[in-house]
TrEMBL record:
This is TetR/AcrR family transcriptional regulator. It comes from the Bacteria. Signal peptide: none annotated. Residues 38-57 bind DNA. The keyword DNA-binding applies. The lineage of its organism: Bacteria, Pseudomonadati, Pseudomonadota, Alphaproteobacteria, Hyphomicrobiales. Residues 15-75 form the HTH tetR-type domain. Gene3D superfamilies: Tetracycline Repressor, domain 2.
């Protein structure tokens, strides 16, 4: 089964059509839960003909896969924005809190995509899509930590970034299945875990305190 888009949009009009297709698919997934919407349902929701859909995607699976790619692509952008921000331990605490708020809502808004991502992870032919984003996110986490503490070895920063990513994904995947109160509690627990993990590596000794 072909899962790649038939063609990439080259013009603004084509991009708008693809956006309509993906937006419609995401709305239907949110409504229907884990059941993938049909190509006909996506076309009707988008106000397009089925033929228009097939100009860009060979099947509904390819649409869902593109949605997963778009979902994954949010994380490098959000982390990279923090890497560019002022880097101190104090600003890191606030930046981490704000970042966690953003990604938590990203999970919550697309909770029904989680089974799709799990399926991709288990598919040997598709797993590389997840891994590419994982590696990018880990590298950006490491860059963020190294900017705050230039003395932190890259190997350690990379290991910490890997733990942040894995623990964060597991915690938020669990959280989206709970009620809103439990979701918020798990999000707060995750922030506590991240800070406990990271601060010992970022809080540099004060040279003025040595006697």
């Amino acid at each position: 089964m072909t899962l790649e888009p038939r063609r990439k949009p080259q013009q603004e009009r084509s991009s708008r059509v693809v956006d309509r297709i993906l937006d419609a698919a995401l709305v239907l997934i949110r409504k229907q839960g884990t059941k993938a919407p049909t190509t006909l349902a996506i076309a009707q929701r988008a106000g397009l003909s089925v033929g228009s859909i097939y100009q860009y995607y060979p099947n509904k699976q390819a649409i869902i896969l593109d949605l997963a790619r778009n979902w994954l692509a949010v994380f490098p952008t959000l982390i990279a924005a923090r890497v560019q921000a002022p880097a101190t331990v104090a600003t890191f605490r606030r930046a981490l809190h704000d970042y966690l708020d953003e990604i938590a809502h990203h999970y919550l808004d697309s909770a029904n995509l989680m089974p799709v991502l799990e399926a991709i992870t288990l598919d040997p032919g598709l797993k590389h899509i997840i891994l590419e984003y994982d590696e990018k996110n880990i590298a950006l986490y490491a860059a963020w930590l190294c900017k705050i503490n230039p003395e932190l070895p890259l190997e350690d920063a990379t290991r910490l970034g890997h733990v942040m990513m894995e623990v964060g994904h597991i915690a938020l995947t669990i959280a989206v299945r709970k009620n809103h109160r439990t979701f918020d509690l798990i999000k707060n627990d995750l922030e506590t875990m991240w800070l406990a993990l990271l601060l010992p590596h970022l809080d540099l000794p004060d040279p003025c305190s040595s006697g």
